[in-house]
Structures are given as structure tokens and as C-alpha cells.
């Protein structure tokens, strides 16, 4: 920040310490950039930075007016950036969606007479939204930022940045629970201006901030990684009776659409995603991000005997070359064939059961740049990860089904062979019809100390 030829200063506030810079050379207005963390992070910290474009709102930001949700959005944006440890908030001098404070107050009077926020602006001779995001794009470029995750409910901001050369890889919702005084205003923005007042993955706005704490934890794990091992998230779905499938080797659609979108958002928050060969043989998954916005994680398959099928979808992954972790027992001819089809085969040391040693594999993945890893299953992999205490975070989706089928963990290899692992301070979040339980293992049970 101090490399820029603009006024800058350290700014400690309630949620953390930011750097503040004023940009006034683009359109004559004094726009402010509040930044936290290293904006020049190298490739190892390459997850797109969290950015908020916040248009000035004197009534909401300063006076705390409840006619809008601007002040609460400003406070929540700063909190989330502070939780992530790295991000930018641009405070843009575009009061009243670009019409200025005097006209905004006149529009308020028209709203009190029965017009909505769109018609009030039009009655005064203005556009419903007169803001221009070209200045925001130029400030981001001056900061050296070309790719962002944008904290917004407004698709016009996404489009505005993209039109000016900023790549927006994800829209991160910023939902504030409505109040009686602004419910109609927010409804108008949703219906007439296309604002997406949805909480993440179909989640109830009342608990959306709680869900964002989970993703802030994943952000910190990525920005502050362990030098030796990835931060491991154990994430899987099961029914009320603990099943992952109805019958052996046949997939079962457990999660509702909202929790599937949540799972895909989880995938996008990780550098890598790991499953066992049993899941490949049963489900033939793609392991891509489809029901959310964000990059595909690196797919990794644990396959101790190299049974990976030559027609698996993962060999045709749109963006990644699948990594197959196997042992010295693998047939060299099959290794060469899979590599010819586009896979990368990793030879990993074996454990006491002559299988892929997961601890050794995780260390190898960290050396390859995987800072945080999502483990989705199947049963044997889940069992090994839990029994060996190889995870830092549990994210469990429970669906309101009872199928009397195949348990999520491998039979006769569960926690009864080991001391119980307890989740410290678990969080419970309803997503659609399902329930997500997440939390970190108790410290004495943890493989490594989780990022906090």
C-alpha cells in the first residue's frame, strides 16, 4: 500500500487493523480503500482476495438509519475481511446510488408518499441506479488486484467490474436480516433491481453470518498454511441412521439441492478434494464445482491397488489432471496407461496394512501446494482419517432420511477401536431440509493445531 502515490495511514478499528488510502485522481471524488493483509501475496496464497464495493450512505453508515441495510452491511463486510485476514473494502463516494444526498432525501419523501425506491428516483429524473464501477476497477488495478471474490448481493456490481477488466470468480452473499422499516425497500431491490437476497447455499439469513464463519476459517487456513501438512476438512453426508448409501456400490442422493450447493461452495474453498477408489467405482464422480461459483479443486483419488477405471469421468476433468495416489504394488503397465490418458500417478509409502499411508500422502500433497484439503469419502477413507486423527475440521451434512443401508464409515473399523473424538463447540446450521454440523476436534485430539 505504501508503494502507491496516495495518502495512506494505519487505521485500527473494532474488528482489526486496516490500512486506509484515499484515491482522488480518477473522477475528482475522494474514494477510500480499506485493506488488510498482503495484497501482493504470491502464488502460494493465490486464492482470489475478498473485496467489497460499498457505496457511501451517510444516513445508514453514520446515523444508523434503518430505512436501508447499508450500515449493517458495512460493519459486516469489515468483520468478514478481518476474519479472512486479507481483503479490501472500497468506500465509493456514490451516495444514494449515485444521485447524491440532497436528491436521496427528496426520494425518501416520495417513498413516504407511497412510491418505491426505484420509482422515487425516476420521478426525480434519475436512473434507478446511477452508479459506475469503472472507478472501483481502476482502484483495484492500482492496488495490483485483477481477480476477486466479490462480497455483494448486487449482480450489477459483478457485471460492472467484469466490464472494466476485473475477473470476479465468486459472488459472496452479504445478507442482512430485514427490519420492519426496510423490508419493503429490500423487497423492491430484489424484485425490481435483481438483487440476490439469498443467504449462502439457500441458508436462512438469520444464520448466514454463522455459516460465513466456517468459510472465514477456511480462508485463514489457506492464507496461513502449515509448512508440512494441509489443513484437512472431513466433509461428508449421511442419513439420520448413519448411512451413506442404500446398497453397496450404488449411489444414493442424500442431500437436498440447497446442501448440495453448500457442498460445492465448500469444494471451491479448498485447494484439493480427496476420495477413495470405492467412491470412483460406485459413483463415477466429477468432483467439479457446479452448483456454486468458484474454482474446481484438485481431484485426488486414493487407490492402493490401482483399480482406477479407464473410462472414469475424472480422466476428462475440464480443468485438472486427476492425481491417483497408489503404492509400489501398482502394475507399471497400468500406471503408464492411466498417465497416457491424462492422470498423474503418485507412488506413496504404505502403512501397516500395506495401503497408501494417508499421513505420508498428505505431506506429499502439501509439498505440491495443497494448503487445505477436503476429504469427501468413502467409508474406508473416512475411517482412516478419523482413526489416525488426520483432520482439522468436521463438516457433516445430515439428511432427514432413514434407509437402513450402508454405513458412512467402514464396518468394524470405526471409533470403537480408538478413544472417542469429540467435536469442540459444534455449530448446527439448517440448510434447506438438511442439518450441517461443523466444528474442530478437541485440542487434545487434534493432529495439528487448527488455524484460529
Please specify the SSE layout and strand pairing.
Elements: E1 8-13, E2 16-23, E3 31-36, E4 49-55, H1 58-62, H2 70-84, E5 87-92, H3 95-98, H4 101-112, H5 117-123, H6 134-142, E6 147-151, H7 155-163, E7 167-172, H8 183-193, H9 208-223, E8 231-239, E9 243-245, H10 257-268, E10 272-276, H11 277-283, E11 298-302, E12 323-326, H12 332-340, E13 344-347, H13 358-367, E14 372-377, H14 379-387, E15 393-399, E16 406-407, E17 423-431, E18 434-441
Parallel strand pairs: 4-5, 4-6, 6-7, 8-14, 8-15, 10-11, 10-14, 11-12, 12-13
Antiparallel strand pairs: 1-2, 2-3, 3-5, 9-16, 15-18, 17-18
Family: Belongs to the GTP cyclohydrolase II family.
EC number: 3.5.4.25
Catalytic activity: GTP + 4 H2O = 2,5-diamino-6-hydroxy-4-(5-phosphoribosylamino)-pyrimidine + formate + 2 phosphate + 3 H(+)
User: Based on the structure given, which CATH architecture of the largest domain is correct?
Assistant: 3-Layer(aba) Sandwich
SS summary, helix count: 14
| Radius of gyration, CA atoms, in whole angstroms | 24 Å
Strand order of the largest sheet: 13-12-11-10-14-8-15-18-17
Give the strand tally.
18
Written overview of the protein:
The protein has 14 helices and 18 strands. With 452 residues, the chain is an alpha/beta fold. The protein folds into two domains: 8-94 and 131-198, GTP cyclohydrolase II (Rossmann fold, 3-Layer(aba) Sandwich), CATH 3.40.50.10990; 212-445, Dihydrofolate Reductase, subunit A. Strand 17 (423-431) and strand 18 form a beta hairpin. Helix 2 (70-84) packs parallel to helix 9 and helix 4 (101-112) crosses helix 5 (117-123). It is elongated, with a radius of gyration of 24 Å.
